[in-house]
Amino acid sequence: MNGPNVIETxxxxxxxxxxxxxxxxxxxxxxxxxxxxxxxxxxxxxTTLLMLLGLSEPTSGKARVCGxxxxxxxxxxxxxxxxxxxxxxxxxxxxAVQNLLYISRLNGIPDDLASIKIKELLKVVDLEVDPRxxxxxxxxxxxxxxxxxxxxxKDPQAVFLDxxxxxxxxxxxxxxxxxIRSLSQDKKITVFFSSHxxxxxxxxxHRVGIMIKGQMVAVGRIEDLAKEKLxxxxxxxxxxxxxxxxxxxxxx
Length: 252
Fold this sequence. Notes:
The chain contains nine helices and nine strands. The protein has helices spanning 45-52, 74-80, 96-106, 111-124, 140-152, 170-185, 198-204, 222-230, 239-250; strands spanning 5-16, 19-30, 34-38, 60-65, 81-84, 158-162, 190-194, 207-212, 215-220. α3 (96-106) packs across α4 (111-124) and α8 (222-230) crosses α9 (239-250). The chain is an alpha/beta fold and 252 residues long. It has one domain: P-loop containing nucleotide triphosphate hydrolases (Rossmann fold, 3-Layer(aba) Sandwich).
């Protein structure tokens, strides 16, 4: 995809004692791109995410998110990005509208404008349910979709999603993937997401990055990585096959 870079890193590094969690990471992610961030547990994905969100300071190197340094301009970054963690937290004794209105007020959005946005967003995420229903009664899929609405309430330029389909049934997963795809196609929002469900990553990602032992060992379109590592053309590979090739080499 072409367009301005929304997420950039230059030799971004994080060291804990003698342990290098992220080792000279260099990535550039464009406006409207869906970027799948892959790697085993302990590879440095969470540490990278925390640095990009301004929640952890790098040992060395630089990062820019939406044009700002997340270390020195964390509040500016937070105004322009949304984050959906693996386990979304809501007030279970409140309904969807009440939860979103609370988030809107935290973001300084006037109630009259927030009411309009909330109505639109609940339609976007297919959550036009009985308004008396409390979030504590929601299924995991409904909570995940409400989480997307929460992320979108402040009109972000980029969103970070951590395992957005984990624990969802097949129908819920498809709905979530369609929603993520629409963020990129319809709203031109940059989507940076991490998942272990590689078949789903393959369906919606423009590019992927594979991190092993703190190092980004591959970045590119899946078809290009397949040709490089497997020597095969389109429709003759899966992302899992590509990933495992890089994974095994990264352990050597």
